[in-house]
Design goal:
five-stranded mixed β-barrel; 9 helices; 437 residues; alpha+beta; PmbA/TldD fold; globular
Length: 437
Amino acid sequence: MKHLMKRLKDKVSSAELYKMNYKSTPIEYEMNRLKTISTEESEGWALRVIINGKVGFSSATSESQFDAMAEKAIEIAQFGQPAIFDFPKQLDRKLEDTIKLYDPSIPVKSTAQMIEEGNSIVAKIQSYNPDLRCDVDITKLEGEVGYRNTYCNPFNYQKTFFKRSIMIQDTQEDDMMMLLEAQGWGQDNLSFEALWEKIEQKLEWGKKIVEVSDDYLPVIFTPKALLVLILPLIAGLNGKMVNKKISPLQDKLGQILFNPLLSIYSDGTIDYAGGSGPYDDEGIVMRRLPLVEKGVLKNYYYDLENAAEAKVEPTGNGNRPGFHTSPSPGINNLIIPEGESSFSDMVKDIKSGIIVDQVLGLGQGNVLSGAFSNNVQLGYKIKEGKIVGRIKNVMIAGNAIEVLKDIVAVGNETEWISGRYCFPHLYLKSISVSTKK
């Protein structure tokens, strides 16, 4: 990357070059049978330049396209946005040699091993009930990120990730139960047996269909379903939305907005987690950033540009969803620490309520306002402190900012979702539940 940056030296005030490449090997099963084995490779380059106080951006898919990419970025800068920020003058390297992101056993895992694992998963499900249809996806990933700007020495790091996802359908006449479970981590240490215990329990709970009435009911959100409530908060805490004055959480730092049982962190420093790294995608060191602590709004999260606009320091949340776009504020790993209540104690405490495990339409609608309205894809009814069956044709609705003021309990165990979200169960006092008769 150094020789490429030298070619820009006399053409720009400053520049930043970002490189990413990855290799993905998915093994896919459909309807209990192996369907596809494939390998996908991708490489991308992204260039931002600052010329005469304006920003230009361009991208390419190989190093050989660098000159054309540079010319385009320089041309775009003539009409670009004002450069209210500059690239880091030096890197804080405190995580570079300490954070663990790469497991060498993942790249060398053979497709034969992955197929053997997939076969055993399908066999386990079929032995439980041969009428179940299951789709299984087992994927290994390895990637590399590189960064350099005109001021500081470069950084480069490698990451691995291994994931399993399982979709099970149980079809009985006019009823279909769909169960989705997944595991993902940067280290190959995930136990399918632990995952199967959850799957088996939910299948047992789902055998009987029960009705619920339209009402405001206590609701337990499983870790998997909790994103329904957390996504609106994350949208509102985005520094870009705050700067645009369209966030319902703007001008509320230091205020008690939620129940004191709730704390939320963006943390990019966790070994092997999917959103971790020594730096964000703009060269700012990753950190554990408190967003909410004991119900108090503590911080918004920023990239370089939006931090400069807000006249605050960047928080290490400059995120590139891909190399084709400029960075924007994004969450690294999202953490809600465990509380003191067990799941079983939560259930015992409820006379009449529901458990929400999966929803349809996650993230749809006016998320920024805090509103949510989702059909429950998989949920269960609680009656007199016991789980009595599966619910159907049920919708939940409300405003996340408001309902998170009425937390009854936080679970004492957390679960990683997709390798990036670490959540407990959350027991809420009252949420609108409606049914379609």
